[in-house]
Amino acid sequence: MNPENRILSYLFSGESVAWQAEGACTSTDFDFIPDIETDEGVNAAQQWCRTCDVRTQCLAWAMLHRAEGYWGGTTTYQRDQLRRVRTRAKCPLCASVELVYTDPHELCLACGVSWIRDVREEPIAATPLPAAGAA
Hints:
Blueprint: H1 3-11, H2 39-49, H3 55-65, H4 76-83, E1 99-102, E2 105-108, E3 114-116, E4 127-128
Parallel strand pairs: 1-4
Antiparallel strand pairs: 1-2, 2-3
């Protein structure tokens, strides 16, 4: 098991879903796990997720458990893209090009999402983070 999955599985076991009770989506009848995900559906889901206090936990849980539907303001496809190891020129969620990297991770400065970078290639547009202690 890779280190990220070990950390996520420690924080979010299959039985540990107490954070869901605090979700903004608990007060809606919107279908967050539809049969077919649409652009209109993700836009509606994101309106709830933007104000949610447990969005990070929701997204992490969905990534760990490969959940389908709208979780943490993302679609199943977007989460599948985040799992792929590759170098990106822009963020797959917000399309920002303000990316930084520290091997093997890449981070979007605009929305805060991160992913594992393909270390076999040179970064496309990301700039390295300053070394710790460097001025």
